[in-house]
Amino acid sequence: MRLPLWIEAKALNVVVFGGGKVGTRRALKFLDAGARVTVVSLEFSDELLKAASASDRLCLIKGDARTIDLDSILKDAHIVVIAVPDEEARRIIWEAAKRNNALVNDATDAEATEVVVPYEASVNSIRVAVTTEGKSGVTARHALQKIVKLLENDRELATMLEALWWAKRYMKSVIPDGRARFPIYFEIERDPRFMEAVRRGDVEEAKRVAKEIIDAHAAGRKP
Ligand SMILES: C[C@@]1(CC(=O)O)C2=NC(=C\c3[nH]c(c(CCC(=O)O)c3CC(=O)O)Cc3[nH]c(c(CC(=O)O)c3CCC(=O)O)/C=C3\N/C(=C\2)[C@@H](CCC(=O)O)[C@]3(C)CC(=O)O)/[C@H]1CCC(=O)O
Ligand SMILES: NC(=O)c1ccc[n+]([C@@H]2O[C@H](COP(=O)([O-])OP(=O)(O)OC[C@H]3O[C@@H](n4cnc5c(N)ncnc54)[C@H](O)[C@@H]3O)[C@@H](O)[C@H]2O)c1
């Protein structure tokens, strides 16, 4: 079973095989998020050539995946992307990735892939990733569009997020013990004045109620 996780891309070394349409999209996605990316391919798209001359985190290696020394290229790799159509190359890359303890994103085989690159969007600081794990990318894209529309029209969520994000930072500054902070989030959430302000889209009132609750705890007026 695949787990959804959010991973800091700056911590990743990614090796992409194939510098065509899909390999380019993957390489640029990882690069834009901060990863160090190497692309191994017989030929490279113009986009990749341009990006490589502009970034020292993108390295292009011209070669055939079937014959190149994969172990030296993969020794520090965390994720290996397979975006070559060639079956034999795929098999050889999979074996080398496993020998080098890297996870595989196989863009040519949704069943085998260990890492899925989902359809993604961000609305008012809420990030969404959707996948059908290869059953139908078109459907995943439609699902994402529906979710985005829902979030865009939801003023309550945007208000709640702004107020509670502020409350979290404030609480961390006045209540040092994490275990003491934890139940207070739910106390704020249960407060009818807080929820009423959230429903009205009144960020300032929501923050005020949250602050009142936090201050009472910080002053030891509540158990
Ligand atoms: C999100 C995105 C990220 C990205 O590519 O960077 C992505 N696919 C995108 C586009 C796209 N891909 C395909 C179409 C044609 C329509 C269709 O598939 O319906 C379209 C066009 C479109 O959707 O518009 C074809 C396709 N997709 C996969 C295979 C292999 C297979 O099925 O075995 C085949 C060849 C099928 C065949 O050979 O017939 C597999 C995967 N593609 C995934 C991600 C993963 C989860 C997908 C899911 O949720 O189901 C997964 C499992 C693995 C992975 O690669 O990580 C990117 C959006 C780019 C953007 O938003 O700009
Ligand atoms: N996951 C997805 O979203 C998705 C979407 C469309 C297609 N695909 C699949 O991904 C694969 C790649 O599709 P594409 O449109 O990028 O193809 P493409 O032809 O544009 O690119 C293939 C690249 O692989 C390189 N290559 C081929 N054999 C090689 C080898 N032995 N060693 C090194 N490099 C080699 C080529 O030079 C080329 O740059 C196809 O199998 C396709 O079915 C996946």
TrEMBL record:
Its EC number is 1.3.1.76. Pfam families: NAD_binding_7 (PF13241). The keyword Cell membrane does not apply. Pathway: Porphyrin-containing compound metabolism; siroheme biosynthesis; sirohydrochlorin from precorrin-2: step 1/1. It catalyses: precorrin-2 + NAD(+) = sirohydrochlorin + NADH + 2 H(+). Keywords: NAD, Oxidoreductase, Porphyrin biosynthesis. One of its GO terms (molecular function) is precorrin-2 dehydrogenase activity. InterPro entries: Met8-like (IPR028161), NAD(P)-bd_dom_sf (IPR036291), Sirohaem_synthase_N (IPR006367). GO terms for biological process: siroheme biosynthetic process. SUPFAM superfamilies: NAD(P)-binding Rossmann-fold domains, Siroheme synthase middle domains-like. This is precorrin-2 dehydrogenase. It comes from Pyrolobus fumarii (strain DSM 11204 / 1A).
